Amino acid sequence: MTTGDDKGFWGLQEEVVDRFLAGEASAEERARVAAWLARDPARGELLAALRAGGDPAAEEDWDVDAAWRRVRARMDGSSAAVQPGAPRPSRVGGSEDDASVMGARAATSTPGAGLPPRRPLAAGPRVLRWAAVLIVAAAGVWTAVQVGARGDVVVATAVGERREVTLPDGSHVRLAPASTLRYPRDFGRVERGVVLEGEAFFDVEHDAGHPFRVRARGTLTEVLGTRFDVSAYADGGTPRVRVLSGRVRFVAGPDATGPDGAAGVILEAGQEARAERAGRIEVDVAPGEAVEALARDRIVLVDVPLAEALRHLERWFGVRFRLEAIDPATRIELRTPASPSLRDTAEGLGVLLGARVEVRGDTVVVHGGSVP
To answer: pLDDT digit string (tens) for 142-201?
Structure first.
């Protein structure tokens, strides 16, 4: 659950923008920026213009305040040329071949003014990394595909967004809301490795000579070819993996930092593993429907604390949940059909809890006590 209102530049906290530009934003903050971009394509133009407004490498300190003033002048000067209802360009900066150059074979998504003063940011690799931000349109939703400091491809989803990604080897990834997937541009040439923040369902192509490895929050999942789900949100409980088909090796703790080895546990189809403290791994039977819920665009939460369930729903729908007179430790089970709506899900939650639920814009209030 989240608290407080976003304030600052166009509803986004100034500190978040600064950390984003400096390359220091968390996965959740990057997802918030992506959602901020999705609400107005003009913001994509702003970010692209920021990139072009000055060369951070030419100065010891990059004066963000001056860059934003140049952007304001640029946008004001061009606003008269944009007629209401006129289509906006689907890309800002870069050519039509940029996505293939960065190694992204396919990525499709499912939707969910004054300038404040800016403090100078020291120019460096993190700032220069964000000079390579490319704003692209996918299914009508503006999202960010970034090139990391080492030339890695970074695909991020906003809160309320899911995304299909096809990796260079033909493996398919279903990226959950508020998640980030990173992989090298030469993926598959020497090894097949990705880094995940958040949650994703993987359908991996078989390649005996190149094991597929997922690193996520101090864990390593290694497979040859299989279908499985990995969840490793910073605010979403312990990292875990669930196997739908095939076999995977799951490693946690210090052993997860190595490239290979015999550490960890072997999981079969229908099993799940959680990384507990000190690298301890708990293995259990995976809840059947939950394993491929993300792949089927469903929400399936089995025996989870209400607080954890609400964090999942907040990421899925891009709203805030507020509890009144209900214990957040209450354990629940929630199942939805494919592509659930917020209103239907909120009503189902109310039935489960015997509570009254109100949807107020981007806030859902869950009232405890008897239902009138």
So the answer is: 344 444 545 789 999 999 999 999 999 999 999 999 999 999 999 988 889 999 999 999
Which residues are within 8 A (CB) of 318 and not within 5 positions of it... i.e. 6 or more apart?
A: 35, 112, 158, 159, 160, 161, 177, 362
Q: Tell me, yes or no, whether 312 and 286 share the same domain.
A: no
Per-residue pLDDT, 233: 94
pLDDT surpasses 80 at 241: yes
Least confident of 26-35, 55-64, 224-233: 55-64
The counts of H helices and E strands in the chain are: 9, 24
d(CA 258, CA 191): 14
Residue 372 lies in a domain: no
Q: What is the pLDDT of residue 77?
A: 47
The burial of 283, by beta-carbon neighbours within 10 Å (0-12 exposed, 13-18 middle, 19 or more buried), is given as middle
pTM of the predicted structure, to 2 decimals: 0.63
Q: Are residues 60 and 124 in the same domain?
A: yes
Residues 104/154, Cβ–Cβ less than 8 Å: no
Burial of residue 121 (number of CB atoms within 10 Å: 0-12, 13-18, 19+)? buried
Q: Which of 236, 240, 201 is nearest to 219 (CA)?
A: 240
Q: Do residues 155 and 245 share a domain?
A: no
Write the pLDDT tens digit of every residue in 187-214: 988 889 999 999 999 999 998 889 999 9
* Angle in degrees, 0-180, between the axes of helices 306-317 and 342-353, rounded to the nearest 10: 170
Q: 190: closest CA among 173, 168, 217?
A: 168
- CATH no. for residue 347? 3.55.50.30
> Could you list the residue range(s) of the whole structural domain that residue 219 is in?
186-294
The pairing of beta strand 192-203 with beta strand 212-216: parallel
Burial 253-268 (b: 16+ CB within 10 A, else e): beebeeeeeebbeebe
Residues 363, 265 share a domain: no
| Residues contacting residue 23 through CB under 8 Å, at least 6 positions apart | 125, 126, 127, 129, 130, 149
- The average confidence (pLDDT) of the chain is 73
How, if at all, do strands 212-216 and 227-232 pair?
Answer: unpaired
And the tokens for 256? Answer: 């997860």
More confident of the two residues 45 and 92: 45
CA distance 339 to 139: 16
